[in-house]
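Can you please make up a whole protein chain along with its backbone structure tokens because I've never seen that pairing?
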Amino acid sequence: AAATQNEAFSADEFAEDIRHALESDPAIAQALLQPGSKLKERTLEIERELREVEVGSVRDYVRQSSRVADLHAQLQRCDGILAEMQERLLGFEADLGSASRDLKSLRSESRSMATKLKNRRAAEAKLGGFLKRVALDPRHASVICDGAVDDSFVEAVAALDETLGFAAESHDDVSFSRDWRSCRDLAPLMEKLRGKATARCGDELLERIDELHRDSSNVHQLQRVRLARLAPLQRFLERHAPEVAKHVQDVYVDRMARTLHALFRAYHAELEKLDLAVADRNDVVAVPEDAVRYALTGRVSLAKRGDGFSLGDRAGVLKRMDEPPLLVHVAIKENRRYPFEELFRSSLRHLADAALSETHFVTAFLHGADQSSPAVQSTLQAIFRRAFSATLEHLENKLFACHDAVGLLLVVRLIERARTRAT
């Protein structure tokens, strides 16, 4: 059966070869179809040609055998190299697979860590804000206990004030309670710092106020330079030691009232040195007509009158209400004298400037409120009560011995205008 199968296979191959030969070489088909063609001769001829080709092929193969062997060796080496590369690529593939799994794991961990970081930052923002409000910076505590009373001390007291005030506040995101453990733990320390700050603030403010009383020559400049920047200390005392704040306010009012009283008494005494006597008890309203009559025309003119009942240019004092007060030492040096209404204008202007400056200072330093508040007005009245009394006393003493009717009328107009501006 196997031999029959091989014969069938050989016959099939032979038939396929014949068909291929006929298709590739049409001359063979023409030769076979010609009449009288000898198929056997042709077959022998083809066999001979095939043997010749076979022999030539064998000879060529023998000649090229060394090169074929080299090529075979090269092919084997290439197979070995390709096999090694295949193994390496398989190793790379395994490594890449492991790296891919590691990257996926790292990506997952990265997302998890990003979420944790976001949550921690959110918690830190809320908790950090709370800690800043409930706990005081150690540097501020050190300054409050041992530092000099300067801008750093004022800043530290303001921070302590905010920390202490946080206990009584309620917020949208957190309600503070003294019952929290953090507050209970910090309460003793905060109380000690509050007591220390209260004592130092009160002592420093009282000392600065005494400096104002001792150096009364430039009291308003000292207020702005030495005392005004300490206003946060008074606010701290008002919130955490009201009795100390009230004592500081009472001492300031007393010292300032005395200082202003002494200043205005001294200023009025200096103004007396500049007084120009315009009229006395011997001056009368009626004068002889010959004294006010023009010699050429014979007409009477009051402009020629030069006694205490002549207005002249004295009404100009009403236009000088906004000018600064007289500098007594300069006027004395220049040997100047002024009528009563000019001295009163200077005194009134000096009083108004002092009242305006004191109003701003008292509002900012003692009360931190609106100027029209009852507390500010009450404090100002207490401070200027003695100064007003000194001014009225000086005016009354002047009026008792004054015979200058024109000057008195101008003083009345000055007072009227001052009241109009004040309202």
Remarks:
- Residues 207 and 369 are 24 Å apart (CA to CA).
